[in-house]
Amino acid sequence: MNTKELFLKLLSYKSITPDDAGSLDFIEKYMSGFSALRVDSNDTKNLLLYKEFGRGEHLCFAGHVDVVPPGDGWSSDPFEPLNKDGYIYARGTQDMKSGVCAFLQACKKATNFRGILSIVLTSDEEGDGKFGTIEVLKYLKSRDFLPDFAIVAEPTCTEVFGDTIKIGRRGSINGVIEVFGKQGHAAYPEKSTNTINLISPLLDKLTGHNFDIGDENFAPSQLVVTDIRSGMEVTNVTPGYLKLMFNVRNSTKTDKNDIEDYINRLFDGLNFKLTLFQGAKPFVTSRD
Ligand SMILES: [Zn+2]
Fold first, then answer.
1. Ion ligand 1: residues, Cβ under 5 Å
2. What integer pLDDT is reported at residue 177 of this predicted model?
3. CA of 156 to the centre of ligand 1 (A)
4. pTM value?
5. How far, in Å, is the centroid of ligand 1 from the Cα of 80?
6. Do domains 3-152 and 168-284 have the same CATH topology?
7. Eight-class DSSP state of 125
8. Using CA atoms, how far apart are residues 22 and 45, in angstroms rounded to an integer?
9. Element (H or E) spanning 102, and its range?
10. Topology of domain 168-284, per CATH?
11. How far apart are CA 84 and CA 82, in angstroms?
């Protein structure tokens, strides 16, 4: 199989998280020169492939075969790749069957390498990811086989393939702010505490706020408001409750406490409740 044929084959698997749809069986057979180990956990399928070329360091390529559901609006079958005008259309072309295809083919063709080449593939990266790569890493650690270096082939390029290499990853913190007021009739605003009025003067200090200025590895950690709801979808009742949701993709310069402090200061004096959920934590590795 050439690289394009392999790519089209991978795209044809309906591997919606956490179902690998048989793609890992295919990959295991395709990479016949590599030893294979399955580290499945709960409903997540994980495949570890490795080949020892000689003494030296252990380089691992990591990726996922699962994709998010295709949703509506497709003009062709999302799992029947369409080759049109120089582009290939299917669910997962970019994130990340192209990256997976590239490193599978490169590893398959590798004839000499000073050390060990390995590949870690999971069927749950787009979902909770609780039983994916982390389970394989635990397994590798228990066997004293953790890689020295890892390349994650997630799409990061901005213009053309290979123009960007990131040496870390941002964290993710989700937040919910609930504001409590007093519902009333639109005709008598002075008798109510309208939660939309309460947050209006604060919004421009909240939405788009940068917690840091970023650095050579990360963009600024920005607060992105994702949802605001309040009221009853009527024109004559003023709302007494408001719920606002946001996300911060944070760099190593900003953490959960910074976000908590900022919002507590900004909302000081209001009756509100802030709930923060820590997702992935940011990290950066050495450039050397
Ligand atoms: Zn991805």
1. 95-96, 154
2. 98
3. 10
4. 0.76
5. 20
6. no
7. S
8. 10
9. helix 98-109
10. Alpha-Beta Plaits (3.30.70)
11. 6
